[in-house]
Amino acid sequence: MAEKFDMTRQAVSKHIKVLHECELIKPEYSGREIYYHFNAKKMQEFDHWLAQFRQNWETQFNQLDQLLTTIKEQK
Amino acid sequence: MNDNLLFDFNVDKTAKTVYITREFNATLALVWDAFTKAELLDQWVAPAPMRAKTKYMDFEVGGRRFYAMISPDGQERWSVQEFTAITPKTNFKMYNAFSDKDENRELPGSDWDYNFSEENGVTKVHITIYNESFERLEKLLEGFKIGFTMTLKNLEDLLAS
């Protein structure tokens, strides 16, 4: 893995550790080896979380549309 | 009303950068004012029934805007925006951070870059937010959740009437 990503083994371990902590990858133990699988469900949760943020912006901008219309009508 | 107006929202998770693009059916002069004048900002930046209150705003390089988002039950979430660059009716940049009611900032904050352009009476606004941490986004959401639920309630009432 370290060769594939052009980083040190330590760096790869650190990345794996963080991804694991975030539950973005799931370990599967097989004797002395660990196989990591991508956890798509967790990524989806994260995207849902971000979608709320998008929704806030949408709400704000719709309010701005209304305000701009009001100002234009006043002129 | 905004059926044909572009709205783009993208997050580069690894770069911690948020990109937002929105078009408005108004002239550049008017949209610029809506983003840079406190009395106009306060009328739209908080999703109803949350409201925004600007204590003061010096829109000049090195100047600050100190404002709060206030929930219906009176809870105030204060923020400080410091303007770092301004090119009138084209671009402005600011450093945004949460703060307490005495203007003590919770660092680090995030860097905001606004770009404005007009074509055929439609004004496009590009917003780029750098160094946005997920932790801070979460804090924002906490404040907005009440607002959003209330917005849905408003919609429900509207549909019922």
Word description of this protein:
The complex is a heterodimer of chains A (75) and B (161). By secondary structure, chain A is an alpha+beta fold. Chain A has 2 domains: 1-38, no CATH class; 40-75. Chain A has helices at 2-5, 9-21, 40-74, and strands at 25-30, 33-38. Chain A has a two-stranded antiparallel sheet with strand order 1-2. The longest helix of chain A has 35 residues, at 40-74. The radius of gyration of chain A is 23 Å and the shape is elongated. Chain B has 161 residues and is an alpha+beta fold. An 8-stranded antiparallel sheet of chain B has the order 1-2-8-7-6-5-4-3. Chain B is globular and about 45 Å long. Chain A binds chain B through residues 49-50, 52-69, 71-72, and chain B through 1-2, 5, 7, 9, 11, 20, 22, 24-26, 30-31, 34, 40, 43-48, 137, 140-141, 144-145, 147-148, 151.
Keywords:
heterodimer, A: 75 residues, alpha+beta, 2 domains, two-stranded antiparallel sheet, 3 helices, 69% helix, elongated, B: 161 residues, Alpha-D-Glucose-1,6-Bisphosphate, Chain A, domain 4, globular
In short:
Chain A contains three helices and two strands; from the N terminus they run ααββα. With 75 residues, chain A is of the alpha+beta class.
Q: Helices, strands, pairings?
A:
The complex is a heterodimer of chains A (75) and B (161).
Chain A lengths: L1 H4 L3 H13 L3 E6 L2 E6 L1 H35 L1
Antiparallel strand pairs in A: 1-2
Chain B lengths: L6 E6 L4 E8 L3 H9 L1 H4 L9 E7 L6 E7 L5 E12 L3 E9 L10 E10 L2 E9 L3 H27 L1
